[in-house]
Model the fold of this input.
Amino acid sequence: MTPTRWSEEKAWQWQRKVGWLRGCNYVPRTAVNTIEMWQAETFDEQTIEQELGWAQAVCLNSVRVFLHYLVWEAEPEAFKQRLDRFLEIAQRHGIRAMLVLFDDCFNKEPKLGPQEPPIPGVCLSRWAASPGRPRVLDRTAWTGLEAYVKDIVGSFGNDERVVVWDLYNEPGMEDMGEQSLPLVEASFEWAREVSPSQPLTVALWANFEDTMHRRFAELSDVISFHTYSPPEEVRETVDRLIRLNRPLLCTEFLCRDRGNTFANIIPIFFQHRISWYFWGLVAGKTQAYCHWSAKPGDPPPEVWQHDLFHPDGTPYDPSEVELLREWAKRTPFS
Done:
């Protein structure tokens, strides 16, 4: 019999066990996307080691990391070995991982091999969807997707280094809409068939009240969400989500030019016992510090959108680093 969604009590037991997760969405500065991050030729252990050391220095205890189906499909065992190595490095720095399996964001038809260089001035200019639009829509391709989910979740489903499974990032993005929902539902079913010890989630990220987002919440063991909104809107979002009576995790935030800053947002998360992951640790080839509205060739902005550190490890804003360290001394769970 396939396990079902966790009870509320089991979800809260998990929350009490893991505590307050404080993390970032992580891609090494040398990778333009997650294909480049995970392919053998460009898997950069030295940079990962260095950067997760910087994360540890500002008291982060988790990272949200995107995997990529195409890399697994090409060499599943070697891919898992690299993932194991990543988790080993993270563990050495006191960091546990939230792993993301699928993603609808950008570049609908990703390809293996050398990735295109970033487009100057453009945020996430070469980000690569996983598995990509054709496979999401073609049910005959789902045999491979099912094998991927079951292999990864089955292999790491009792691994203490993995804290949460985020099965699908922003389903419906790039005009996919509800066409992505069947794969979301299938992903929960496949993952539950291998009985992981960690909770499953898919984040609410756009219209939290529509049918698709309500379905994400119904399926998730713990409730995750994204917000790049000003503080007053974040409070309204949180007020809606706490009614679901499950642990909350904000798996994407930080948009400085909208007032979505560490100083404004973390106090809200602390008040409501919400774990969090801001976007971007180190400024690099993803160019996440650039604004969404920037055009190709625009100079780097004075006010960064995302990211915490310059490539040499110096903080964009030293006061932010001190703030993160101060919050780490506190816990919302008594």
